[in-house]
Amino acid sequence: MGAFAPTASDLEHITHQLIEREVPLSTRELLLLILERQIAEEQARVRAAAVGDASPYLPGGTFSVGQTLSFPALRFAIGRVAETRVGSNPLAGSFQVITVDFADGKRREFAAQVESHPLNSKPTTMNGGSDSIANQEPGALADAFATRLEQRLDAALDGTGKLLRISGKWFSRDLLVQVDEHQLNLAEAALDMAGGGPLSTEQIAPQIDLPTGVNSKLMVFSLAHALHRDDRFDEVGPTGEVLWYLNRLEPDEVLHPPRMLQPAQPTVRGAALTPELRRLAMELDDEYSEHAHPANGETQVRLVLTYPHRRAGTLPLTPRLAAVFPTARISPRVKITLVDGHTGKQHPGWVVRRERFVWGLGPIFAQYETPAGSFLSVARGEQVGEYVVTVETRRPVADWLRSANAPQGQLRFSMSKRSLGVQYMDELVILAESMEQLDILRARNEQQATSLEQLVQDVFRELVKLTPQGTVHAKTLYGAVNIARRATPESIFAELVQRPSFVHVGDAYWRFESQAAAA
Fold first, then answer.
1. pTM
2. What CATH number was assigned to the domain covering residues 398-518?
3. Nearest to residue 482, comparing CAs of 472, 491, 470?
């Protein structure tokens, strides 16, 4: 089906079907209508070719002027041989060239008397041959080439100007039922009473005085179209499900994503990192990383919490996590329910795919006093739209841990003995003494446009003070820099490789030598 393209006749057929049925149809349903029609036409051509006096064209055949031929590879087009001549190609040996006139006025040349040609072995019987769609079932064709065919059909339908699509369903513009401002105000009130939503179009429709005697599916489609065109309403359902929410009642962090989650500069693509640093970047699995783990069909994903997401009460939407959470064809935000894996308590959550985060984790993080560096897992829940988040807990144990603070606007680190009841990664765990002070520090760095080079150097020098060896692990540097400014592993690790003041001392540890910088 590589050459599949809906014709103008196909699109007209679809439009008539939508008007006649008065029911919105999905791209898949419309594709089946086209395939059924094209297969029927192909079968008719095959039958016409079989009962007529046309001979099937095969490259190995011998043909004469005036002979009528049918061409299976051209959907059984009929043509008459107008001329023959000897072919000239030293590499192909002796063969004949026939010139054929077709009913549409076109003239084409074909090779004949070519004994070794793959088309010579293709059957051209009544059923149309092995490559003919005359042999195929519409459903089987749609299944085999679903994505490619549906994309081409969507593009063709968009170009007609006569049809519109809402949540994956197509319908004729001419049959839309008018939904007025009064009815939209009632829809807003219905959602307001539901706490903002989400409600389906079918749940809203009975509450807004829609006209009676109209096909219910047509009425729901018309209402969905009107809601889409009104900025008060956001569609927040996953692919295949239409749910509505009041824009003004959505969390501010969802409508205006926290700046602390967005890298201040693009990640350093193709940076000359060592194999070890590339491996570390993959292990960190940053949502903006060039080396993030690809999705591999996991039903449960384990991850390490970084400070920006701890502060914002979010999860990073890495490729692995994105495969667990719902997708949406158009909606920039999807409403979900987050479930505490220990207690079963439910919390409202939002998937914001464009900015690559999931919001609504704040209460869960606070419940378990979860610092940056903690391990947690995410899996789909038992109910549709539910996602279970489990902070990995343990019996509280006192450990010497890194902590961060920003007295007088300067980022400082220290070691202190704290009791934590969660599992964590040693290299990434950092406790925030005052998130508010760290917020001020981050804002100042942004206002002053502090360079990443300067920031990495300042943070590294502070971290060096925590160990007698005077070394810093690359993962620790990544976690600490992200307290002061959002940056990807590649951008931070590129500073280690490019600046002579940073010296690799083995494994993933580095030290700082100011003399090397001066040299």
1. 0.74
2. 1.10.10
3. 491
pLDDT at 412: 94
Return the structure tokens found at 481: 């820099």
Please tell me the distance from the alpha carbon of residue 227 to that of residue 214, in angstroms, as a whole number. Answer: 18
Total residue count of the chain as it appears in this document: 519
Residues 6+ apart with CB under 8 A from 410: 441
- As its CATH architecture, domain 176-250 has Orthogonal Bundle (1.10)
Beta carbons within 8 Å of 169's beta carbon, 6+ residues apart: 24, 25, 26, 221
Which residues, 6+ apart, have CB-to-CB distance to 517 below 8 Å?
499, 500, 501
Q: Select from 401, 389, 394 the least CA-distant residue to 361.
A: 389
69: which 2 tokens? 């031929």
Stated as kind and residue range, the H or E segment containing 377 is strand 375-380
In three-state secondary structure terms, 138 is helix
176-250 and 398-518 agree in CATH topology:
yes
Domain ranges of the chain: 1-162, 176-250, 271-395, 398-518
Where in 63-162 does DSSP place strands (E)? 68-71, 77-86, 96-102, 107-112
Taking residues 171-181, report their average pLDDT: 86
Mean pLDDT of 85-95: 76
Residue pair 314/260 in contact by the 8 Å Cβ criterion? no
How confident is the model over 422-451, as pLDDT tens digits? 999 999 999 999 999 999 999 998 888 889
Amino acid at 129: G
Q: Cα–Cα distance between 490 and 408 in angstroms, integer?
A: 30
Band (356; pLDDT cuts 50, 70, 90): very high
Q: What is the pLDDT of residues 190-229, one digit of tens each?
A: 999 999 999 999 999 999 988 887 778 888 888 999 998 9
Q: Please check whether residue 501 is in contact with residue 457, taking contact to mean a CB–CB distance below 8 angstroms.
A: yes
**Residues in CB range of 171: below 8 A, 6 or more apart:** 18, 24, 25, 163, 164, 218, 221
Give the architecture-level CATH label for domain 1-162. Roll (2.30)
Distance CA 325, CA 317 (A): 9
pLDDT at 517 over 70: no
Query: What whole-number distance in Å separates Cα of residue 332 and Cα of residue 26?
Result: 21
Edge-to-edge strands of the sheet including 431-432? 412-422, 393-405, 431-432
H/E segment holding residue 25: strand 25-26
Q: What is the DSSP string of 171-236?
A: EEGGGPPP--HHHHHHHHHHHHHTTT--EEHHHHGGGTTPPSSS-HHHHHHHHHHHHHTSTTEEE-
Contact 339, 513 (CB under 8 A): no
What's the topology of domain 271-395? At1g16640 B3 domain (2.40.330)
491, 265 in Cβ contact below 8 A?
A: yes
C-alpha neighbours within 13 Å on the C-beta side of residue 284:
32
Which of these, 175, 183, 212, 187, lies nearest to 22 by C-alpha position?
175
